[in-house]
Design a protein that fits this description.
The protein is mainly β. The protein contains one helix and twelve strands, in the order E-E-H-E-E-E-E-E-E-E-E-E-E. 24% of the residues are buried.
Length: 168
């Protein structure tokens, strides 16, 4: 039963797992609420020390946060001078997010623009987390609301390609 593993370390097939969500969730939410009052955004860990919090709703849910905030996991502090704005009319909530640690790109795909219960967008982009450069990718054929995504490496005869898969 998986509930026995919550808050404990375990090893399965040479992969090490540790659930620290209970330890950090309350502190992260408390700090986030003090800083920007953004709720239900997406948090992605970039490396052992850094993470980003993307988008979210304002407390009244009729508006959304249009920012990417950097969080120092080790110090439990927001990086005040390191914040990125999402482009205008790009989804602020319910988007799929993937991160490529090798190239340092964050991929944001589809989701909802604005607060309330707005329609889904098919927009996609990638952001270089160090430079902040934004590149729009081709739109999805159909928008996805609260989708998932993943980067998958595919070996061809001559090279290894990385493909972004979106599902949901």
């Amino acid at each position: 039963e998986t509930s026995d593993l919550i808050g404990k370390e375990s090893t399965f097939m040479d992969v090490h797992f540790q659930d620290t969500s209970r330890q950090h969730k309350k502190g992260l939410i408390r700090e986030l609420n003090k800083r920007r009052s953004c709720y239900e955004g997406i948090f992605v860990q970039l490396d052992p020390e850094w993470g980003v919090y993307i988008g979210g709703f304002k407390p009244h849910y009729s508006a959304a946060c249009n920012i990417i905030q950097f969080w120092n996991i080790f110090n439990r502090t927001w990086v005040q001078d390191r914040e990125l704005n999402l482009p205008n009319q790009f989804p602020n909530t319910h988007h799929a997010v993937s991160y490529d640690g090798q190239t340092r790109y964050l991929y944001l795909v589809s989701g909802q623009v604005g607060g309330g219960c707005n329609v889904v967008s098919s927009k996609a982009l990638r952001i270089h987390v160090e430079s902040g450069d934004i590149q729009f990718l081709p739109d999805l054929p159909e928008g996805r609301y609260a989708a998932g995504s993943g980067l998958v490496k595919v070996r061809t005869e001559n090279k290894v390609e990385t493909h972004l898969h979106v599902f949901g």
